[in-house]
Design goal:
Strands 1-2 form a two-stranded parallel ribbon. It has two domains: 99 residues; 102 residues, Alpha Horseshoe (Serine Threonine Protein Phosphatase 5, Tetratricopeptide repeat). By secondary structure, it is mainly alpha-helical.
Length: 257
């Protein structure tokens, strides 16, 4: 049986790889204008994404700086002769009164919470805004802001701090049942990173306020049997238990948080 000798052109034409390359080049040749436009668009999109990320990074830094300023104000000092500029006496801000200090802090925290609401930093700012409002006697606004933080899952550690603050506020205002619900929920929550001894002390005070002295004693004893044997909180818990056991069985009132 005879064989047919193929030319080089015919062999290359039957090569599927070669055929694909030829078609690819032909596509680019006939659609070069469209491809150029798409490539330019891709470059613009990439540049836009990069610019957007740079913008967000800059805003994040700005938010952190303003939050830090607010926290400096919140922890600032008070002096009757403080000038209008809180930094006039040095790097630690000084204010003429507690009210002036917390008002200045609240302004910074409120600005961060509203301007950078997309960021987790805004949650921290709203928490400190609530604390500042408590100090200023703006109870309703404070509870609203702390409640928003407590129910926000984006920053759970700060959320637990907000619940702790709300529990303390409820104890001080006589809402012992509300405090109990916050505290028992946190003690049972394995993800809560707040010291259980501190939560137990607060819960015991809420229970005493509800007239449940025996339950309060049990909470303190159970917490005292867990965790490290020696710590500042463990000593405080022991002192709280001793005071509670020595107090009259009726008519006692919880210590202030």
């Amino acid at each position: 049986m005879g064989t047919t000798k193929l030319t080089r052109k015919e062999i290359m034409a039957e090569d599927p790889v070669h055929e694909a390359i030829v078609r690819f080049l032909e596509f680019f040749r006939t659609n070069s204008k469209k491809i150029g436009i798409l490539a330019a668009a891709a470059v613009l999109v990439a540049a836009g994404i990069y610019g957007g990320l740079q913008y967000l990074d800059a805003r994040e830094v700005q938010a952190q700086e303003q939050l830090g300023k607010g926290m400096d104000f919140f922890h600032g000092q008070v002096a009757a002769d403080a000038p209008s500029d809180p930094y006039a006496k040095g790097p630690t801000p000084v204010f003429p009164s507690e009210s002036a200090k917390y008002q200045a802090a609240a302004r910074e925290f409120s600005s961060v919470a509203s301007r950078f609401s997309y960021s987790k930093i805004s949650i921290v700012a709203r928490y400190y805004l609530g604390l500042s409002q408590l100090e200023l006697g703006k109870k309703e606004e404070a509870v609203k802001n702390l409640g928003a933080v407590a129910n926000n899952s984006k920053n759970r550690p700060v959320g637990y701090l907000a619940k702790r603050a709300l529990a303390a506020y409820n104890i001080s205002s006589g809402n012992y049942q509300g405090a109990r619900e916050f505290l028992e929920g946190m003690i049972k929550d394995p993800q809560c990173n707040l010291p259980k001894e501190d939560l137990a002390i607060q819960l015991s005070r809420a229970l005493v306020g509800l007239g449940k002295r025996d339950e309060a004693v049990k909470v303190l004893k159970d917490s005292g049997s867990q965790g490290p044997a020696f710590s500042a909180l463990k000593q405080q818990l022991t002192a709280e238990l001793d005071k509670l056991q020595k107090a009259p069985a009726t008519g006692s009132s919880p210590a202030q948080p």
